[in-house]
Write a structure and sequence with these properties.
The protein has 105 residues and is mostly beta strands. It is 13% helix and 39% strand.
Length: 105
């Protein structure tokens, strides 16, 4: 399994057996040196900061949702449970701009 950037997956983040949706932000690599993906978790908590991006309405979530770029992490691909959706390019552009801001790139 090689997820693509912009895809949303349900993942086991190991937080007391909690699963949550995550946005894959690592580049597609069919033969990576490690079996890891870099992700940003989706959340329903909004703190009104420049570190967050408001998401469009998603059919698999029943609440308004956001990505908090400060939550960037990595997990093994095996912890991805199933693909839920994919963001349109305009949403990914906004998220990439926020990543650039947060990491001061």
């Amino acid at each position: 399994m090689n997820p693509y950037p912009g895809e949303i997956w349900l993942a086991d983040l190991g937080l007391v057996a909690k699963t949550r949706p995550v946005l894959v932000i690592s580049r597609y690599d069919p033969d990576p040196p490690l079996s890891l993906i870099i992700y940003i978790p989706l959340t329903t908590k909004y703190k009104e900061s420049f570190y967050e991006v408001t998401l469009p309405k998603l059919n698999f979530l029943n609440q308004d949702s956001y990505v908090n770029v400060q939550g960037i992490g990595s997990i093994e691909k095996i912890r991805l449970i199933r693909k839920l959706s994919k963001f349109p390019e305009n949403v990914m552009t906004e998220i990439k701009n926020t990543i650039t801001f947060v990491l001061d790139l």
